[in-house]
Amino acid sequence: MKNREKIENEYENENFAGIFNGHELKKAFEIKEIKKEFGKKYSLVSKEENLKCALERYELDEDYEVYLLKASGKMKQDFFYPKVKSNIFEIVYCLEGECFISSTQSKKNYYLKKGDILIYKLNNNDIDKYRFKSSDLKKILIFLNMDNLESNLSKSMDKKSFLKWKEKVLNIFENDIFCYGKSNSEVNILSNQIENMLINDVNDYLEFKMKIFHFLFLILKIRVNSMETILIDDIQIVKEMKEMLNEYSISEIPTIKELYESLKVSNYQLQRAFKKIEGVTIYQYIQKKKMEYSKFLLETTDKNILDIAIEVGYENPSKFSKTFKKYFGILPSKYQRKC
Fold first, then answer.
1. Please, which residues have CB within 8 angstroms of residue 322's CB and are 6 or more apart in sequence?
2. Which CATH class is domain 232-338?
3. What is the CATH number of domain 7-226?
4. Is residue 235 within 8 Å of residue 277, measured between CB atoms?
5. 332: which of 154, 190, 202, 324 fits an S-S bond (Cβ 3.0–4.6 Å)?
6. Domain boundaries, given as residue ranges, for the chain
7. What span, in angstroms and rounded, lies between the C-alpha atoms of 285 and 271?
8. Of 271, 272, 274, nearest in space to 184 by CA
9. Pairing between strand 88-103 and 116-121?
10. Taking the CB of residue 269, how many other CB atoms lie within 10 A of it?
11. How many CB atoms are closer than 10 A to CB 298?
12. pLDDT confidence of residue 16
């Protein structure tokens, strides 16, 4: 579109928006662009520290763009977030590793590990300096331009409805510029699929775009819902059930009927609580635990696919492979070779 306002223009035409100051990045890293048919990919090697990064960038729409960052080693960097005119949010989801972000001005600190979410509102009144430390970090970053989103959606929906939703999103910051929170099982499953997607053709690219769109607004939905009333009983049920499941080995997890009877709740209460808190049913949550354990076995042992399938409760390896791909976006055989 002629009037498209690219997000990076808000950053004085610097690339790598929101990760580091562009000039400082070039001082600290040797940067090499790797040609890709879809999106852009960069290889970054630290000039001083033992650190290598792979960065993929996808401008999926005028409303949002996404970065996938994989860093091997320890990173320490100071950077600035400049003041911008548009309502732009940076959504950070930690896939692996850990990172620590501290504000030198507001003295606020944020520690992120796997499954944590940090949302930053860029159009604040201050230009703040931040200190960033990380170790073997993998993360998804999404930049959402709320102004562009409002302009585009107002063409196809009632503007009052959008503004009502927008107000709820803005309320998650609670008079702050950061919003920190935990993800749920539904987000974690989707993040695994995004991380392992291979984009080889237009169909793959469109599927990737749809998953990112779903991922983005699912995160916002979780944060908005966290501001609303959740029954204490639901929180307690999920907490106690998770603790109960952790007492069993993967191959010995009881049936769902045995689980809710042990907890002295009904099947309806258990399903409602998990759907509300985790975004998935108790069956899907248990299936997710099995898939995560099978992924761990693929990474750390030489066991074959059949043995792993049986160990996590699948007598049919084909069904196991299909379920594994559903959760991680890749077949277990391919994932094993990748490891």
1. none
2. mainly alpha
3. 2.60.120.810
4. yes
5. 324
6. 7-226, 232-338
7. 10
8. 274
9. antiparallel
10. 16
11. 21
12. 39
